[in-house]
């Protein structure tokens, strides 16, 4: 599933980095902190690899 906003894509990238051990889980904030625990690495990859060009900054609605 592709990311719905740039913020979601960015949070998924941070969570993926922590899940892989590249960054500390304690450094995460907000949504990325929840994502790392509740999503698989594959799900995070799908969100993080979404192209940002046409995404809104934040999800509307």
Feature tags:
61 residues; 0% strand; globular; 3 helices; mainly alpha
Mass-distribution shape: globular
Compute the CA-based radius of gyration: 11 Å
Flag low-confidence runs.
none
Secondary-structure class: mainly alpha
Note the beta-strand portion.
under 5%
**How many DSSP H or I helices?**
3
Explain what you see.
- The chain is mainly α and 61 residues long.
- 52% of the residues lie in helices and 0% in strands.
- The chain has three helices and no strands.
- The protein has helices at 6-20, 30-38, 41-48.
- Helix 1 packs across helix 2 (30-38) and helix 1 runs antiparallel to helix 3.
- It is globular, with a radius of gyration of 11 Å.
Question: TL;DR of this structure?
Answer:
This protein has helices spanning 6-20, 30-38, 41-48. By secondary structure, the chain is mostly helical.
How would you summarize the topology of this molecule?
Elements: H1 6-20, H2 30-38, H3 41-48
């Amino acid at each position: 599933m592709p990311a719905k906003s740039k913020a979601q894509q960015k949070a998924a990238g941070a969570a993926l980095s922590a899940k892989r051990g590249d960054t500390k889980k304690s450094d995460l904030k907000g949504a990325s902190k929840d994502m790392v625990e509740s999503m698989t690495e594959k799900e995070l990859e799908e969100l993080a690899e979404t192209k940002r060009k046409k995404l809104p900054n934040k999800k509307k609605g």
